[in-house]
């Protein structure tokens, strides 16, 4: 998708296009200004092949397969940005947005501007080790970009490469803080130092991270031990013997099942408290997604999370809120956990995806007492921080968080009546902002729906056992919803005729 600002950018002279990058050099060579206007954003998706992936994508898949396993590929996006990419993908892909990681659509002028700046060129050419040899303006970047949107009560940020490493190193922070959270001396004894080299206690203590079933937190060795979605993610991989508890499985409509849902949330909270108090390996941290996404876009009440926070606080357990997929405005608040209105903030909030940079915010008390216990070569990437700054500025100047909430409300106002008319296929509509999902009655019907939507030119994605999720960019608007809805109903009609006629 493209904004009006991008139209202005692409309509400028060829000289400006050349300044903005090699891909725009291709544009300036091939297209006139009028052509560029026409390529900005189509009014509707256009399907040019009968099946997905089409012949060109299959050819590209075969070429990549010579060097990498590319079997999960849906289709090729056309990068580098060819005219076919510009005229087709941005619309059909706006419900998915590169697994929720595209914040402003494709080729947004704010991001193109910062990418073509001299500061970006220098940061790419001279990537520093940010803890050993930071640039002189790094404190300014931290304060005016990352800390500008820091969750309330979190005064430090630790930069990483991606969401998995953000959660992985958040676990490490919880383990380092274990003694301090319980008022124990944090000095390291000679015995701890020596036994750690043999991966033995007490230097390598038996500590655990408690996670929720249906939660996804990454694919590194430690995050896989906390991930509880698809077996294929974990099978054959050695794992820490960490415990898991149930995430509430609410019944819909919520107003009809208040009593049952309250009992379900209590059941899950009782599990949390029981595990923390009885686990043979002490629980150093608990990780939870505000909306477990890969596991089926599950929701719980604000009261559930408030009580969860109290349990972790009372028991000296670091609470890690995984906002990799829910953060940066997607839910109608910048951070999804803002809805909870906690009395005390969580110790850690992780981020990635729509921020385009990654890492975790944390309370100052989690900063290790000994330097370099949390350390790596890069400690983030200044070029990604510059892009994050452009994203944050655009979100603020265009009120995109508020617009995302309004668009989400508009989408929900149509999906709920549709779920009544097509109740055999669309069930349990739920969401916050544009992080919206619904269930199909079976996994087979869900997969059929997703496939048929692609044939309509709309890329939408599955999650959980039988759920369908929306993950649009923040510039997804009511006009895009209006283009989506007739295609949505068209697919539902086709399925009804095929299944029940």
Automatic annotation (TrEMBL):
SUPFAM superfamilies in the record, alphabetically? PLP-dependent transferases
Alphabetized UniProt keyword annotations = Aminotransferase, Pyridoxal phosphate, Transferase
Q: Which GO terms describe its biological process?
A: gamma-aminobutyric acid catabolic process
EC number, UniProt record: 2.6.1.19
Q: Which reaction is recorded as catalysed by this protein? A: 4-aminobutanoate + 2-oxoglutarate = succinate semialdehyde + L-glutamate
Q: Which family does it belong to?
A: Belongs to the class-III pyridoxal-phosphate-dependent aminotransferase family.
In Swiss-Prot or TrEMBL terms, this protein is called: 4-aminobutyrate--2-oxoglutarate transaminase
